[in-house]
Design a protein that fits this description.
With 125 residues, the protein is mainly alpha-helical. The protein has 7 helices and 2 strands. The termini are far apart.
């Protein structure tokens, strides 16, 4: 079983709430219901493209989630650190908060979704 990123459950829940059910979410994403279930359980890695689409469905900033998911894909590596440094600046420019402990990515909160910009302390290597 693969480790499921901590933010993925939140993203799945928000997208499901907007879609109406996991089944309807799966249909919107053009994947099987079992695939969504496997993402939830951590049995299957959720591709970055599907995370971006779920963010869009949930009404979140899809570009910020794309950057966050991409960094998470390389978490704990030198490339992940480089991506964090490169994309962290872009995330701040788009109005998203981005936190990291090294290359460890955490949730991004959209200003449009919450009405408030949440800044989370960054612990840089």
């Amino acid at each position: 079983m693969q480790a499921k990123p901590e933010y993925l459950t939140q993203l799945l829940d928000r997208a499901k709430d907007k879609a109406g059910s996991d089944y309807k979410l799966a249909k919107l994403l053009k994947v099987g219901r079992a695939t969504v279930s496997q993402w939830r359980s951590g049995k299957r890695t959720c591709p970055v493209a599907d995370q971006v689409l779920m963010a869009e469905i949930a009404g979140l900033d899809a570009e910020a989630w794309n950057a966050r998911a991409l960094v998470a894909q390389y978490e704990g590596t030198a490339k992940g650190d480089m991506l964090y440094r490169a994309l962290g600046k872009a995330l701040l420019a788009t109005g998203a908060a981005f936190a990291s402990s090294g290359a460890s990515a955490t949730a991004i909160f959209s200003m449009a979704e919450t009405g408030v910009l949440y800044f989370i302390r960054c612990i840089l290597c």
